[in-house]
From TrEMBL, chains A, B, C, D:
Source organism phylogeny: Bacteria, Pseudomonadati, Pseudomonadota, Alphaproteobacteria, Sphingomonadales
DNA-binding region as annotated in the record: 34-53
Lineage: superkingdom: Bacteria
Domain HTH tetR-type: residue ranges: 11-71
Organism whose genome encodes this protein: Erythrobacter crassostreae
Name assigned to this protein: TetR/AcrR family transcriptional regulator
Entry keywords, A to Z: DNA-binding, Transcription, Transcription regulation
Any one Gene Ontology molecular-function term assigned to this protein's record: DNA binding
InterPro entries: DNA-bd_HTH_TetR-type_CS (IPR023772), HTH_TetR (IPR001647), TetR_C (IPR011075)
Length: 213, 213, 213, 213
DNA sequence: AATGAATGAGGCTTCATTCAT
DNA sequence: CATGAATGAAGCCTCATTCAT
């Protein structure tokens, strides 16, 4: 994510375009954003975009990969780095997602749903690679959540398979995004987070919004 | 849904256009389907579409309403009509959704996700009415699921609020669609269904695919 | 060519587009003319062009067919209708081509070569249909010229095969267009015409420019 | 044509670009080849091309000159060097052209027409210099063929002017290229060659394909 | 109630060309 | 001498929409 650190100027330009497009596609969908608009927003000539991406779909694929990398890194890996108990990790993950939604709502007055699923739904039919990529990302997510589930099963002596619990947690996370977007309410993320904790036997733990500056 | 029963020819034409568009938008997204294509598929002149709908967005709104009505009627109301116990009702709902996914996969080789959420995600930004409508539909869904949760809480003596459980069930259902679509696997619906049953304390009950003709 | 006689309005529009494009492609080559320009020249919206032609190449194909039909009809068939002796027919053909070149030069200050060969050379590689069509047209031309050759062989007792003579006449006609275009001189058409007559044993006959109004 | 012999590296680079472009323009026409493609094919940076040529048209002009020089040298001058009788010279010229067509067909599965006329037809309108250059080249060709015609007239006592015969031979050569390209048949070159010999009174001589390795 | 025909705007992509290194 | 990077203009095509019948 540290563009300035990228070796060549070209790679920096490319990364800048991807980040710009990621933001736009997230807010307005793939078809709602023209290549012209991406170029304008990135302050780059349209032809420059085509120097780095074969076509608009190729850009979308790069965006999905970018979104996936950012998500895994900043949400999951970092929660695992900071915390070690399953309840802390899970709470951290949902706290992060919730915080992002709060910020989103404040800054742009709206809530946009999961940027990976959004693109995958819109383009999945025409671009199988995009769906493959999204699937791959959520396999990773499920892996993280399954680890949490396994630790919870061990700690709390649940008699459910960690794998199934991991899958359920993943689906709940999907549902959290969808319902937050439809209702326009970040609190739906908290609902899903608390339900997830309850599911793993941490009924006492509640996700509480951190103070944000 | 029984078009032939509609009084005037105009109403039948209109309903036919909506049903055709619903199918196309579902499979290929809103922007992936041109008005020309809808006209061709419905075997209707393009100008006829504009006789019944102010613009393409208006058609999309009608499609969302249509999808909502069909879903509530054929999935939720009908499950409630046939069954009375919470576990039977829940199982029936998921069995229906699962069956629809199996059929979808067989007939078109792919799985398309929730048609209501799909349109809401794609158009939510530009057409608030559509998101409102989708929200309204899922409020009804949540109502149905909350009733089931309440009965389960009563039956099984759970110490969770039916409202929160209803919400969680709704989110799990959202997640079921998303994950089935990404993975291309109808079994994800069964996973969510069984998790839902477990959540309500019906760990013994399993949703099993009915014989289909 | 009588557009007003075409049954439907659509067919007239289509024919008008083809005729306009034929003229432009002839003067400025296929790639030298944009679809926008064709639309402007035909006083038709660009989208209207795409209502009648799948793409620009499809329009070029229609143009080649049009050019072929016009050529066969106005040059060859009509010369055969009016005259019956081989030398009269051949002279009429070349007189017509020569006259067209003179007019061209007067009206636009330049000479454009054969519109069929021009398009075939430029597009033959990417559009085999176009070359096929051009080949078909010149097969017809060769047929006409072979008939003339056969009659000449009979009349003048030449000991060459009419088929080979027909082919040579066809090649000379090709060369006449090329050399007239390169030199910017209509007289090259007369040269080829007189050489053709000589070839068939009509050394006395000379093609003379008719008085033109 | 011996690039390695060129004094400076720059001249070699330039010559290499011209030769590469000549080949591409020949096969795919001027507008069908982008500067990018020329750069790729020549394994040279695009900016390097603009170091040696003012613009793409300038490159085309260089290509026409190159084609002309190669043609005159390898086909006409060399035939005149090797042979002295008119029929041998003419036969050698057509044999060469025919052989080139056979090779072309074998190596690339297609036949491309005269590269000089092709460019002149496509660009003649926008670039008068190119047409001038092409005209100049074919004046030289006509000179060579007129010399052959003159010798034939002397030898065979024909009562036609060598100049007119030279012109006819030139036009037949043009027609040979055009008809070979349209029909995709190298044999059309032989047809024109034999017709040319017959025209000069060498009815007995036939051009026969040489054994090629 | 329905249709064939037409349109303006805009989308995606590519091109020839130049700049800075 | 050569290159990686960038750009403005233009090209082809499609879309949603309307008109006249």
């Amino acid at each position: 994510m540290d563009f300035a650190a990228l070796p060549t100027k070209g790679e920096r330009t490319r990364a800048h375009i991807v980040a710009t497009a990621a933001n736009l596609f997230w807010r307005r969908s793939f078809h709602g954003v023209s290549v012209d608009l991406v170029a304008d927003a990135a302050q780059v000539n349209k032809a420059t975009i085509y120097r780095y991406f074969a076509d608009k779909g190729d850009l979308a694929l790069a965006v999905v990969r970018f979104n996936g990398a950012v998500t895994i890194e900043t949400v999951f890996a970092s929660s695992f780095d900071i915390y070690s108990s399953p309840q802390d990790r899970l709470a951290a993950i949902f706290r992060f997602v919730y915080g992002a939604h709060e910020t989103m709502l404040e800054e742009s007055g709206d809530i946009y749903g999961c940027p990976i699923v959004g693109l995958a739904l819109e383009l999945g039919q025409d671009m199988p690679e995009i769906r493959k990529e999204a699937q791959h990302i959520f396999d990773q997510v499920e892996n993280y959540l399954t680890i949490i589930a396994r630790d919870a099963v061990d700690n709390n002596g649940l008699n459910q398979s960690p794998e199934m619990l991991g899958r359920t947690l993943t689906q709940l996370l999907h549902g959290a995004f969808a319902s937050a977007r439809l209702a326009g309410a970040p609190s739906r993320i908290l609902d899903a987070g608390n339900a997830s904790l309850a599911l793993l036997g941490f009924a006492d733990t509640q996700i509480i919004q951190q103070e944000r500056v």
